What does this fold into?
Amino acid sequence: MPRPTQALVDLAAIRHNLGVVRRLVGPAPKLLIPVKADAYGHGAVPVARLCEQLGVDLLGIATVEEGLALREAGIGLPLILLGNILPTEAAAVVSHGLTASLSDADVAAALCRAARQAGQRVPVFVEVDTGMGRVGVHPCEQADRFITDIAGRPELLLQAVFSHFPCADEPDARFAHEQVRRLQAVRSRVEAAGVRVPLWSMANSSAVCDLPTAHLDLVRPGIMVYGYPPSPEARCGADLRPAMSLRSAIVFLKRVRRGTSLGYGRTYEVPVDQSLVATVPIGYADGYARALSNRAPVLIGGRRYRVSGRVSMDQITVDLGPDSQAQVGDEVVLFGQQGPSTVPVSEIAGLLDTIVYEVTCGVSRRVPRAWIDADEP
Ligand SMILES: Cc1ncc(COP(=O)(O)O)c(C=O)c1O
It folds into this structure.
């Protein structure tokens, strides 16, 4: 029997959130769901399987290794590498049937060589940098020539041109609108030159929720599919169902005297006599950050308590006060729901001065994932 700490992922929530995406974008756009970073911590293989069942068109990955793991698990959907690869990775991209995103001629040339060697025509995306400032070809100086060149290569099959938003989640949408205008200008010019690109794509979750002009032919929502609004203001926020909760259980209890200190650095002193102190087997090695020491809420018996003392590598302590009747084995929720109470991931992210993406991705490999489908009878 493993220790009780686990990340519980509700696939029904992901199914529901995909429905929210579909309602927002309408029937036409294709869906690319990012399952990179182990599906933002939710488990790439089960999420990819669910996406396949639900008719998602493509999946997004970050590395060749992620693609290989999905192929080995039998996932047949197109797997799009959303970042740049090195020319040295081209052969592996072709042999695993992955789709590279191209931003430069060297990778394109390496992919053409790998495609010739394999005797295959390989699908590719092209990224245009309309304002993210990372990878992607420049929308004015290079894009038209690069897209035309890629579209004309017999070894490659240009499937989509895409771009990414750095701040579509901010209330001031002027820069996002300018980015859409830049990509649309590229599209008009290459189409006028007779180049046909099947799909144009811009929308991440923020744009799916709040920027309909960016929906185009293919949307790429990630965080909202996992149930977390891309920003507190996002219009879709209330409709989403968070998929992950982080759970553990009390493994040890003791009653202590007032003044007893808990944990490393003795940063917490129990204020009342006969307080019940619970030890819970989760720590920073599980991705439960040390910066949550003495700050983060936890749920026990449907009530909110607070981490008391430092988060150590494998354990935390919680002062339950003198009146608690908690028992060893009682469930502890670090984020998620317990009875009527909830600790939203956004609250943990706020305490850590970060975003929900980092919290769910940060739940470490040591924490076993368990998948349920709350809608299944
Ligand atoms: C290229 C690209 N498209 C789409 C997404 C999904 O973004 P979000 O999770 O904010 O919807 C990402 C996420 O990092 C990305 O890198």
In short: The chain has a mean pLDDT of 96. The first strand starts at residue 6 and ends at 10. The domain at 11-225 is CATH 3.20.20.10 (TIM Barrel).
